[in-house]
What does this fold into?
Amino acid sequence: MRSHLLNDTTADRYRRSVTEGVERVAARLATTDRPFTGVTVDDLAPRIERIDLDKPLHDTTAVLDELEEVYLQDAIYFHHPRYLAHLNCPVVIPAVLGEAVLSAVNSSLDTWDQSAGGTLIERKLIDWTNERIGLGPAADGVFTSGGSQSNLQALLLAREEAKPGGEGWEGWEGEGTRADLGRLRIFASEASHFSVKKSAKLLGLAPDAVVSIPVDHDKRMQTVALAHELERCRQDGLVPMAVVATAGTTDFGSIDPLPEIAELCSQFGAWMHVDAAYGCGLLTSLKNRDRIDGIERADSVTVDYHKSFFQPVSSSAVLVRDATTLRHATYHAEYLNPRRMVQERIPNQVDKSLQTTRRFDALKLWMTLRVMGADGIGELFDEVCDLAAEGWKLLAADPRFDVVVQPSLSTLVYRYIPAAVTDPAEIDRANLYARKALFASGDAVVAGTKVGGRHYLKFTLLNPETTTDDITAVLDLIAGHAEQYLGESLDRAC
It folds into this structure.
């Protein structure tokens, strides 16, 4: 079995095996004519269930043949221009090359003696991102597994920075007690990511710790309402731990008014966190960067390169204005990062991270920037934002559809409105049916959400290869499926 270990004696076998796997994927990408086959759970599950993992095939070609059957032929392919559902981007080739390199070398980014150059590359990319944001010379950060982890770490730092001695902390009972944690409040819009509430629970805060702030017609946080809730928090003897501003909500791509929120955070002494997991692509934009003006005033920022930088999952980071705040995630172990290493100025990334063992995901972004440059990424993201603007015009002009808001990024939320049906519940069912039928056909994949308690459909446009013709075709498919449902519903009623 040693022949399967990657080392100096198996380099040729590694080259042949990986090449064969790459050829399989390349062939599949070249021949995929729709984003999904429409396979069902009932069809696919038995294929996987019948495989006996205790009986290996002992042959790479045979394993790849099997993989074709249980995965590759039925995978959902984000590169297809009619995959329009979630925040899954097609990936750029330099990043995929970086993925191949980092997987083979298998560096772990926790300590210097496991990564060396990888440590410095990650730090360079953190500095580059901070410069793009404008957080200042004391800024720092670390790569994470994704936006949820980045938000969790940012709010951990905010919790630890909300220390006794400041305004509102009279009657402090001692660091870390349940009574103290119960006084902390986080403010986020009603359109913010669910990870904010999940993080509050993980951090031991009160069940009502997250105060939901209403949004305006454009799905942006209402700063008047935020100011009111911050003032009420202070009057009630509670502590405004953090305000989470979203730069690109998951459902609408809406961007909260960052400058106004920054002013309120300064006034009330709250940590300002900007969840830019989606909107971070604007950091490289050639023409839309001003949409996230104010982000430079944040105390922490979440970025997901695997959304709008066209990177493979996972590639994310949390950035902070003040590097010293990262100490709240620092623990020392004699076998790993003893305290003496700090005095010796040995850079251990585990000192900043919630994770210990951690992939060298930064290499993918490094390869992308060195091959394409930041302007190349920005050009791609600008294209999908422009496409969403054109899609909004199509929807707004089409009497068959109701579109919710004009896009700030690349998301469109809409629903089919049949001319002959007025019952909102029946319209809901028609839209739900249309989405499921479209997915089952494999012709396109769209997402769904609720707006005002009603079911809507969603395009998340992250593929520059998608065209307005694709959007028009998918809208026609949706209308056809919805009308089929309504026709059958009428027949059943008769």
Observations:
- Residues 229 and 493 are 49 Å apart (CA to CA).
